Every structure is written in C-alpha cells, then in structure tokens.
Known about the structure:
With 220 residues, the protein is of the alpha/beta class. The chain has a single domain, classed as Rossmann fold (3-Layer(aba) Sandwich), CATH 3.40.50. The protein has helices at residues 2-23, 40-45, 68-79, 86-98, 113-119, 123-137, 162-169, 195-206, and strands at residues 50-53, 59-65, 103-108, 141-144, 148-150, 173-175, 184-191, 211-219. A hairpin with a 5-residue loop joins strand 1 (50-53) and strand 2 (59-65). The chain is globular. The N and C termini lie far apart (34 Å).
Amino acid sequence: MRALTATLTATLTATLSPVADLVWPAHCAGCGRPGAVCCAPCRRALRAGARADLPDGTPVHGCAPHDGPARQVLLAVKDRGRAEARPALADALAHRLAALAPRVALVPVPTRAASRRARGGDLVADLAARAAATARRRGHDVDVERCLRLVRRVRDQTDLDARGRRANVHGAFTLTGPPPDRPCLVLDDVVTTTATAAEAVRALRAGGARVEGVLTVTIA
C-alpha cells in the first residue's frame, strides 16, 4: 500500500507540474535560469556520475559529485521546498540505475521523523518510488522495498564529524520481515562520510539480504 501511494503521488506531481509552471513561472533549481524547473545543462550535470566505496568495499554509485548544479538541485529539493524538482533527481537516479542491474530492489534509507516533518514526507522513499517508476517505464525490472526501519533515535548528522556520524547510526537500523527476493541497492539522497549507507548495508546483510551496492544522487 505504501509503495502504491508513493507511486500515485509521484504520478500526480508529474502531471500537475506543467500546470503549475503556467501559473508560477519556473526558474532552474540548479542555476536559477528562468524557464525550466531543471534546465538541460543542469540535468546533464546530474548525470555526470560519481563513485566511492564503503569501508568494506561495497560500491557507492552516485549520479553526480556533490558540487555545482547537482548539489544546488538537491539542496533546493531538501532545504528550499522545491518539490517540483524531484522528478529531475528521480530521472538521474533511473539513468544511473539502468547501468547497474536489470533486476533490483531499491531499499531507501530510513528517515528520521523530524526530517519527514520538515520536508513534508519521506524524501528518500519518494525518490525511490519515482526512480523505480521511471526505470520500469524504460523497461527495467525495479521494485522498492521499504524494509529497513530505525530501532532507536538518532541525531541530525549535519554538525557531526565522520567519527560522530558512525557512532550516531551504529546499530540504528534493522531489517523488518523477510529479506527481498532479489539483489538490493540501498538508496540515499547524498553520501558524505558513508556512515549511514554502511549501517544500512550492515542491517540488510545481517538479515540475509543480497546487497549489490549503494545508489545516491550525489557523493561528497
């Protein structure tokens, strides 16, 4: 039911966005150029590609480095209420996803309640639903499994260093129910110190899931 709701929300937003642009003239969330929510050059920047590894060697696949227009689009969505730019992020994720695995489950990283309230919902889960829907329209077998949950309270990580972030999320996630029946990619919006992604991978593997890597919009 949650996956269906997220998919319906993504479809409705994509349908209404062009109408909204007629009422409120758009400016690019990446560079400020008028005329588009995310202009063609900024969409290309979101497809630049980036790569990192977790401490255990698990690959982290990013749509782009966390700088320039890609960073600005992501921050506009996360911190400035530019929900109409979410489809651009989902499109970039689906593009990156197409090169990784023909059949995969996206597992969004759990979001703190405070972050959900601040952003009007679970941004990471919404991006997972949008990216999966876009990938399926392009012929790929992609599902979303919201099978991770927080088992204790964690702090906002913004002001923590790498060591503090690792301690903050250590043991914070667990797998709910049986593991997905297909290979998994952990999904997050940005990977910085890798602490959150590594904890998500640990929790999934502890529950018997087959984790192929991590997918994220940007890598810092």
